[in-house]
Amino acid sequence: MPPFLVKKNKKMKKIITLVASMLAIALSVNAQFFVGGNLGVEVAYAKDGLFENTDWAIDVSPTLGYEINEKFLVGVEFEVGGGAVSKMQTFTWAVAPYFRYSFLHFSGLALGAELSVGAVGMDPEGGNNAMVGAEVSLYPVISYAVNEHLILESKLSLLSFGYQYLDFADLELNKLSDGYHSVGFGVNRGEVASLGVIYKF
């Protein structure tokens, strides 16, 4: 295995340990298990002189976790996606434990905030430079309880605030180049919002 990937594997082990610890805490209290998922779609059009380009991306994010009580839940999200950036096909992935607090409830509607910390990556098809890194995000979340088991939700990605660090991995030279940092609104997700569903057992 290339040395730069060994370093990343150590970071992944720390994230997996964090997820396991988080779920162990959830199991020790009176929690309710849930599964679900989110779908996000992004389309962007740009024109530069004689050149026109349409970037697009779609991601699916299965999730599982525990609802501690009406206001607090913990879980982990596994995101996979694909798209085209400057006509280059890309594959993206992310693994992110998250904590959500719902502070406003009214007739089945709930408004809350979700904090996630995870590992991310992107691999361009036919390219030599993959990207791996980490991110921290804070999302506004709106949800609606259809019944005691089924919940519809939307993460307002455009209003999210986050930090992201990415390293560029040269797959031919087996080394990492200098990474870059980004902080701001909508840093970690391109879509305006994602739609999802949660089922509580």
- How does the major sheet shape up? 8 strands, antiparallel, barrel
Total number of strands: 11
3D shape: globular
CATH class: Mainly Beta
Notes on the protein architecture:
It is globular, with a radius of gyration of 18 Å. It has 1 helix and 11 strands, in the order H-E-E-E-E-E-E-E-E-E-E-E. By secondary structure, the chain is mainly beta. The termini are far apart. It has one helix at 3-27, and strands spanning 32-48, 51-67, 72-85, 88-106, 109-124, 129-145, 150-155, 161-170, 175-176, 180-185, 194-200.
Please render the helix and strand layout as text.
Blueprint: H1 3-27, E1 32-48, E2 51-67, E3 72-85, E4 88-106, E5 109-124, E6 129-145, E7 150-155, E8 161-170, E9 175-176, E10 180-185, E11 194-200
Antiparallel strand pairs: 1-2, 1-11, 2-3, 3-4, 4-5, 5-6, 6-7, 6-8, 7-11, 8-9, 8-10
Keywords:
201 residues, mainly beta, Porin, 8-stranded antiparallel beta barrel, 11 strands
Q: Can I get a quick summary?
A:
The protein is mainly beta and 201 residues long.
